[in-house]
Design goal:
Elements (H helix, E strand, L loop, with lengths): L2 H7 L6 H12 L1 H4 L4 H8 L3 H10 L5 H13 L4 H11 L5 H14 L1 H4 L2 H13 L3 E5 L4 H13 L4 E3 L4 H8 L7 E6 L7 H11 L3 E5 L11 E5 L12 H17 L1 H19 L1
């Protein structure tokens, strides 16, 4: 049953605080679908427990299940062609450059609300403390994984850009250690190999950082830190602008947290580049 139908069915049981959460969910569904319960409750001006109780009143096991259902409704039956068509149909005669900039600016405004600097500080500390950083992505997200791996490598950090084939990925994970850190980037629909990767990391005790716009209830675990990257309307064309901003913010946070270490590495890189360019 769709979320809106569940709300209508149970409306008589909803408290004023419940209705405040419902207003947040229904007024901005494309953004609320990718926010944790704490942020939804904050916007509604209620305690986080209210969001959990609301989810249970509506028949979900908890708030993560409600959020997953809302995400599924937003994404259901919308393929790549349909998303592009919806975006073009919305404003057929507009200046596409100006319209795209407006969409991206609106999405970027949500980044500061979705990702706190304290979260980035915590992830940066894990990156700097890790024996190795293993970066995972598939599809379009590989643009971001390549960027992140390259930046970290230039900082002198040990990085593994995990390979694309299933067999090569499995071989790379044989040496996965609890002192390693897995950074996974997954958007819209999680890649098939993401869950086995997370299961393997949790099995050996390696912490995971997940940069995503799909906060499914079964993707996280106690050792997983999620950096939300909501990209706007999931039923229309979406770009990588928001997750790119999150990745760049993380890179700069790492550079600030270990300024001496990263500066020394970059200076050494310049020396090596001059050596190899001659």
């Amino acid at each position: 049953m769709p979320l809106r139908d569940r709300i209508d069915e149970h409306r008589g049981r909803l408290s004023p605080a419940d209705r405040s959460v419902v207003d947040v969910l229904l007024s901005h569904p494309t953004e609320a679908a990718f926010l944790p319960a704490e942020q939804v409750a904050e916007r509604a001006g209620v305690h986080v427990a209210t969001a959990t109780r609301l989810a249970k009143k509506l028949g979900y096991a908890g708030y993560p299940q409600l959020r997953s259902a809302l995400q599924s409704e937003l994404l259901e039956g919308v393929d790549a062609a349909a998303r592009v068509r919806r975006r073009l149909d919305r404003s057929p005669d507009e200046d596409l450059v100006a319209g795209l900039v407006d969409d991206e600016v609106a999405a970027l405004r949500g980044v500061a609300r979705a990702v706190a600097q304290e979260e980035l500080d915590g992830v940066a500390a894990r990156v700097l403390a890790a024996r190795r950083v293993l970066v995972y992505a598939r599809g379009n997200a590989t643009v971001l994984s390549a960027l992140l791996a390259r930046r970290l490598r230039r900082f002198g950090l040990p990085v593994v850009d995990l390979p694309g084939s299933d067999r090569d990925l499995a071989e790379e994970l044989v040496s996965l250690h609890r002192d390693d850190l897995v950074v996974a980037l997954a958007f819209r629909r999680p890649p098939r190999t993401l869950r086995p990767l997370l299961a393997t990391a949790h099995e050996v005790g390696a912490p995971v950082v997940l940069v995503t716009d799909v906060l499914g209830d079964d993707l996280g675990a106690a050792s997983t830190t999620v950096l939300a990257a909501p990209r706007g309307n999931g039923r229309e064309f979406q770009s990588l602008t928001v997750p790119m901003a999150v990745v760049n913010a993380l890179v700069l946070t790492i550079a600030r947290a270990a300024a001496g270490r990263t500066t020394t590495a970059l200076e050494r890189l310049e020396e090596l580049l001059e050596r190899f360019d001659t």
